[in-house]
């Protein structure tokens, strides 16, 4: 056993760390977090789909699924999930190329019992023969779910067009075909795979808890020392990702969603060894720049490109694809050679003029500042992240490694830049307008591969750098240091610091997280925002045009950690500003000035309008269950509209229409804002006065826009069918509370908490109805509600509704059968979730802003809900279910779509079908707030 406490941690990090290695060679990182009421654990195993046998694609993924379904010590396949859920936690896992990660969080009081269950995955899993077929069908459902996912479809083409001897070429997910055959034979292969690849010396464990390091070390030894160590070593084939003939190629792919994207991809070696200096981070800092003179700025001016990203791409043990990706305009598709040549010119510019210490130091300072004032994340995310870092970084850098930039190593940068050439490049073109002759396995993606022509290579040769391309100027927003001010808050919750007709500003000085950052929310309500689909389309177009218009003038501020977002809502739009407080007001003034200019050009209007139309029309290609979620708010919220309906309105809108809409939008405005973080009260008051003055220049005061929600009372079961082109069927059943008070919030949230794991286990694991199966507590416009949802490759809508109704009808018996202790554990688990401590400034600001939106001006709604939950009995919950859900004729909304393979089944019909959504919404009773 060896141990060390010499990890480099942020000065703002209150946690304590201990690294140790158990006698079985399991590497362990313990994290003591006294501020958290939750605990978490994550195990990262150096095994992934690269390890799949050639005859069993998806085996690593299948094994990940099977480990959850019972162990010798805890044989019940649903017990682990139920235990975690009951105690207010969550759990999940993923299988990647070279690693598999298992993780969970739970209330700290139940941590020891949960570790007992979790550790058994890696000591004595049962691999129950009866569950083999059931779980491979779950893998099939997961595969089926993504059949029409363009990301997955394009990923498969990538796999097919590389060196077939490299493990990246393997089909990663698996399905019934690759996991077929006799259950007993598959189980034996599963056992053999587990024994051959799962070994303590290939695992890293991270525990995070409000327990002392000494206590955590004791738990780690108690529960994880028994994991067998087979002293396995990892070795993947010494094969290049691309053979020579697979470079210098176009890979042209036809997507399902309408999009046009070009990716320049350069084949680099594995990059883990570069992490101390991060040369690619520095290169991306320059290539991805968006300020005037940048590659993106030039390409946008030509009307060829909308967006650029530099630095993405797959990576692994001996490879890294360095990608420069462009979202093309329609015109850009005709200028591919020009885009590629300009990119090579900018790479040359970086090579010739960009290797300067001050430029590197700018990027390094940003990471140093981010590390110094590192904000805490949820314990679950921290445990998962650190367990993976243990496979990539040296011990002292497990926390610091992501932020480390030790200085400009010009030789490293030049080595990588010298590989960014035409003869070491592949080009991927994704467009519905390309010709293809091949179809990818599994996902049937149409694609074509062709070699670069001699003419193309000649056209891409750099012969000088065009004058329009320039490296960025020094960034005035970057500060080398910043200090949080020690002033204490005058109130434990936000208070109103500025108010007059038409506006109200809230403020709260943070005195807990000790970071010199702030969050500023400004919501602008206008009755002109979305009374009709056309108005809503115009408002969304205005937001997109504004974001596009602001890109260049605000880019350096964004780089310096001052970010912003503008998004539409039912009543208008919201501006959210975040980052270091020293320059926040400067950025806000810039945003307001630019928003008032509204100098939108016809060319950018045409491009952004086309982009927005593409996005809305593409929504019809989303997963069925995703489309049902969108349609739920569209069906129930008076001022929400189907994406296709807004697209139809947008088609004929002109630039003059947009300018007129913006003018009318600002005629009468209601402003509500929150200033939270390292802002003093007098600063917030002064800001309120300036905002009030600015508003008086452009608008008259107004009241808040009404938020109207359809009242489902007295309608019985309403059904609405969506026509979705997909092989799966999907259903969403929504129950609404007519009253928005803490009692109903408590009942709906407790019912969901009590039901969720049982619903998942019964309908997904046992009945195998689909991969996307669940329940959710869903408040809309303050009204509590609950949903049940399934996307299924095996059953049509009628069968799915019957299964949900049967589950609800039987659940009251399940509630009656649990013990008093289990009932109290269920309640305390939910209470712990609701009262979970805010991890950072961002989480706290979101909670305060949500409270303001919900008119929870005491900022104590969650405490009131918890008081109600504490009083609820099993009888209360059963009575609530009987009144609200037990009959098939109760008030509820059922949204569904019938999959292509279920059209022959008995349809789901009713005399209460919503066939004309517009008429339904106009005539229905509504709640207003």
Write the layout of secondary structure elements.
Blueprint: E1 2-4, E2 16-21, E3 27-32, E4 38-45, H1 59-67, H2 79-86, E5 90-95, E6 100-107, H3 111-119, H4 129-145, H5 150-160, H6 183-197, E7 203-209, H7 213-224, E8 249-253, E9 260-268, H8 279-287, H9 295-301, E10 305-312, E11 315-316, E12 319-328, H10 336-353, H11 357-372, H12 379-389, H13 410-417, E13 425-431, E14 438-439, E15 446-451, H14 454-459, E16 495-500, E17 503-509, E18 517-525, H15 533-559, E19 563-569, E20 572-580, H16 584-597, H17 602-618, H18 624-636, H19 643-650, H20 655-665, E21 668-677, H21 681-698, E22 700-701, E23 708-710, E24 717-721, E25 729-736, H22 742-766, E26 772-777, E27 785-792, H23 797-817, H24 820-834, H25 841-853, H26 861-871, H27 874-884, E28 892-897, H28 917-923, E29 926-928
Parallel strand pairs: 3-7, 8-13, 17-21, 21-22, 24-28
Antiparallel strand pairs: 1-2, 2-3, 4-6, 4-7, 5-6, 8-15, 9-12, 9-13, 10-12, 11-12, 14-15, 16-17, 18-20, 18-21, 19-20, 23-29, 25-27, 25-28, 26-27
Helix pairs in contact: 1-4, 2-22, 4-6, 8-13, 15-16, 15-17, 15-19, 15-20, 17-19, 22-23, 22-26, 23-27, 24-26
Structure description:
The chain is of the alpha+beta class. The strands form 5 sheets. Strands 8, 9, 10, 11, 12, 13, 14 and 15 form an 8-stranded mixed beta sheet that branches. It has a 7-stranded mixed beta sheet with strand order 1-2-3-7-4-6-5, with helices on both faces. Strands 16, 17, 18, 19, 20, 21 and 22 form a 7-stranded mixed beta sheet that branches. Strand 26 (772-777) and strand 27 form a beta hairpin. Helix 8 (279-287) crosses helix 13 (410-417). The N and C termini lie far apart (62 Å). 44% of the residues are buried.
């Amino acid at each position: 056993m060896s141990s060390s406490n010499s990890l480099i941690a942020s000065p703002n990090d209150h946690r304590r760390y201990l690294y140790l290695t158990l006698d079985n060679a399991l590497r362990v990182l313990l994290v003591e977090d006294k501020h958290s009421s939750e605990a978490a654990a994550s195990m990262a195993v150096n095994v992934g789909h690269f390890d799949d046998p050639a005859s069993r694609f998806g085996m690593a993924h299948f094994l990940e699924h099977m480990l959850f379904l019972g162990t010798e010590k805890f044989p019940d396949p649903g017990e682990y999930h139920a235990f975690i859920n009951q105690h207010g936690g969550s759990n999940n896992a993923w299988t990647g190329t070279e690693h598999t990660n298992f993780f969970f969080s739970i209330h700290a009081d139940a941590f020891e019992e949960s570790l007992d269950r979790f550790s058994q995955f890696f000591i004595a899993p049962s691999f129950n023969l009866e569950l083999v077929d059931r779980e491979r069908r779950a893998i099939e459902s997961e595969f089926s779910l993504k059949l029409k996912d363009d990301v997955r479809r394009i990923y498969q083409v990538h796999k097919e067009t590389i060196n077939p001897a490299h493990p990246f070429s393997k089909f990663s997910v698996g399905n019934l075909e690759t996991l077929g055959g006799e259950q007993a034979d598959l189980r034996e292969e599963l056992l053999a795979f587990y024994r051959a690849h799962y070994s303590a010396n290939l695992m890293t464990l991270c525990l995070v808890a409000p327990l002392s390091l000494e206590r955590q070390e004791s738990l780690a030894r108690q529960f994880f020392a028994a994991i067998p160590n087979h002293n396995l070593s990892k070795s993947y084939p010494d094969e290049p990702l691309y053979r020579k003939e697979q470079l210098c190629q176009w890979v042209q792919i036809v997507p399902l969603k309408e999009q046009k994207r070009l990716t320049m991809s350069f084949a680099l070696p594995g990059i883990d060894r570069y992490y101390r200096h991060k040369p690619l981070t520095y290169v991306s800092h320059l290539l991805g720049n968006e300020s005037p003179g940048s590659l993106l700025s030039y390409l946008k001016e030509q009307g060829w490109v909308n967006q650029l990203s530099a630095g993405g791409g797959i990576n692994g043990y001996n490879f890294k694809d360095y990608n420069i990706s462009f979202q093309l305009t329609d015109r850009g598709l005709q200028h591919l050679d020009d885009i590629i040549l300009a990119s090579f010119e900018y790479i040359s510019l970086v090579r010739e003029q960009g290797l300067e210490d001050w430029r590197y130091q700018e990027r390094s300072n940003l990471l140093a500042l981010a590390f110094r004032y590192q904000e805490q994340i949820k314990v679950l995310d921290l445990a998962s992240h650190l367990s993976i870092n243990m496979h990539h970084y040296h011990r002292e850098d497990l926390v610091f490694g992501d932020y480390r930039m030790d200085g400009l190593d010009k030789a490293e940068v030049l080595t990588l830049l010298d590989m960014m050439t035409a003869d070491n490049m592949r080009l991927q073109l994704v467009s519905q307008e390309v010709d293809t002759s091949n179809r990818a396995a599994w996902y049937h993606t149409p694609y074509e591969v062709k070699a670069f022509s001699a003419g193309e290579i000649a056209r891409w040769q750099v012969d000088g750098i065009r004058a329009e391309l320039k490296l960025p100027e020094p960034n005035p927003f970057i500060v080398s240091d910043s200090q949080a001010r020690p002033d204490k808050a005058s109130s434990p919750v936000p208070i109103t610091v500025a108010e007059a007709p038409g506006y109200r500003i809230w403020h709260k000085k943070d005195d807990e997280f000790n970071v010199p950052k702030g969050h500023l929310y400004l919501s602008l309500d206008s009755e002109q925002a979305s009374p009709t689909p056309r108005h809503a389309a115009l408002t969304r177009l205005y937001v997109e045009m504004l974001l596009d218009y602001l890109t260049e003038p605000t880019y350096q501020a964004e780089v310096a950690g001052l970010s912003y977002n503008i998004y539409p809502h039912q009543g208008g739009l919201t501006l959210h500003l975040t980052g270091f407080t020293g320059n926040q007001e400067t950025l806000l003034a810039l945003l307001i000035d630019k928003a008032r200019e509204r100098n939108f050009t016809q060319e950018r209007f045409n491009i952004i309008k086309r982009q927005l139309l593409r996005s809305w029309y593409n929504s019809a290609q989303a997963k069925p269950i995703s489309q049902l979620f969108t349609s739920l708010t569209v069906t129930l919220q008076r001022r929400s509209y189907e994406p296709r309906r807004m697209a139809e309105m947008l088609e004929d809108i002109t630039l003059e229409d947009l300018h007129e809409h913006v003018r009318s939008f600002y005629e009468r405005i209601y402003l509500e804002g929150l200033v939270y973080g390292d802002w003093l009260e007098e600063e917030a008051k002064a800001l309120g006065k300036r905002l009030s003055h600015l508003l008086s220049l452009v608008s008259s005061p107004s009241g808040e826009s009404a938020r109207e929600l359809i009242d489902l009372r007295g309608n019985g079961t309403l059904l609405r069918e969506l026509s979705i082109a997909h092989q799966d069927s999907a259903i969403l059943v929504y129950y609404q509370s007519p009253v928005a008070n803490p009692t109903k919030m408590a009942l709906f949230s407790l019912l969901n908490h009590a039901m969720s794991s049982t619903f998942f286990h019964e309908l997904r694991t046992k009945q195998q109805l689909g991969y996307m199966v669940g329940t959710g507590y869903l408040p809309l416009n303050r009204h509590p509600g609950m949903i049940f949802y399934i996307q299924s490759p095996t059953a049509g809508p009628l069968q799915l509704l019957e299964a949900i109704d049967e589950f609800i009808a039987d659940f009251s018996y399940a509630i009656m059968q649990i013990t008093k202790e289990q009932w109290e554990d269920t309640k305390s688990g939910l209470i712990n979730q609701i009262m979970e401590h805010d991890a950072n400034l961002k989480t706290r600001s979101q909670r305060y802003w949500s409270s303001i939106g919900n008119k929870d001006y005491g900022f104590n709604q969650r405490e009131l809900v918890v008081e109600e939950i504490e009083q609820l009995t099993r009888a209360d919950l059963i009575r609530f279910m009987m009144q609200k859900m037990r009959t098939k004729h109760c008030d509820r909304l059922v949204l569904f779509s019938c999959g292509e393979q279920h059209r022959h089944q008995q349809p789901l019909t009713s005399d209460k079908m919503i066939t004309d959504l517009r008429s339904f919404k106009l005539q229905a009773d509504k709640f207003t707030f």
